Amino acid sequence: MKVLLVEDDEVLADLLRRSLVAQHYLVEMAADGQAGWELAEVFEYDLIILDLMLPKLDGISFCQQLRAEGKHNARSLNCKTPILLMTAEDATTNRVAGLDAGADDYIGLAE
To answer: What's the whole-model pTM score?
Structure first.
């Protein structure tokens, strides 16, 4: 299973990557939303794990663009790829906004 992990916190990203690799997932990483978007345009993934607050392109905008691209181009590589949106912020409004943007699930990470 090939996973795209888009997370700007290096420590958290490394921890998640190591955990996923230990479970035999192939993980590609990006440290900002734009870099993640560029990978998602070129490579197909089985899962995208996406931070809500990212530099250059935030998680909500990333989700919206990916899902919108699928409506305009059925052959888009990742338009139907499941997206797990994560953030340290646990506000209900963030959860609703993420799901409305096209995320398939949402996880709040306590700091």
So the answer is: 0.88
